Amino acid sequence: MGFTNKSCNEFVEVLATKAPVPGGGGASALVGAIGTALGNMVGSLTVGKKKYADVEEDIISLQAQADKLQEELLALVEKDAEVFEPLSKAYGLPKDTPEQQAEKDKVMEECLVNACSVPMEIMEKCCEAIDMMKEFADKGSKLALSDAGVGATMLRSALEGASLNVFINTSSMKNREVAESTESRANEMLAKYSVLADEIFKDVKERL
User: Fold this and answer.
1) What is the CATH number of domain 21-88+105-207?
2) Which of 6, 9, 61, 182 lies at 20 to 30 Å from 188 by C-alpha?
3) Could you report the per-residue pLDDT of 91-126, keeping only the tens digit for each?
């Protein structure tokens, strides 16, 4: 679909239309990639500075992690669109007869599970990036400290945004065991990492 190859203007224009994709999941993945890149920028402004020579090896390792997460989150922009489009079509399946209703229910359930899988993955990547951001904030150049704070804030938004795309799909699932297991995992990530992102933001603010 090539959404990440569009200009910022093109992406926002498509996002504003009634087209089913990209939507909140893809937007969350993109915001997560941008937040991660801000941490990477902190690293770029730290490496090579004598003042931070003792943490340079750590920072280089963090940057390698950030490079990987950026790529993965950008790929999830596309993947989210790929799994949501079949779900948007499934809502329009006929249900005039019992047979049609049964087929629609089956297709919907499969599509809902698939549509949950990508925002869950976005959440997981954001959690990894928030852990990484804490290290960038703790060890990186003080001149770029605010960027680490902005990155943490964006990652929290991406995490919470992706969670809503999980919950809207689990709420429609008939298999409540799968739905509740998925919701439980999402809530665990929110409980831990929304708090950690807040702590990073507060710490950065106090140090400015």
Assistant:
1) 1.20.120.680
2) 61
3) 888 898 988 998 998 999 999 999 999 999 999 999
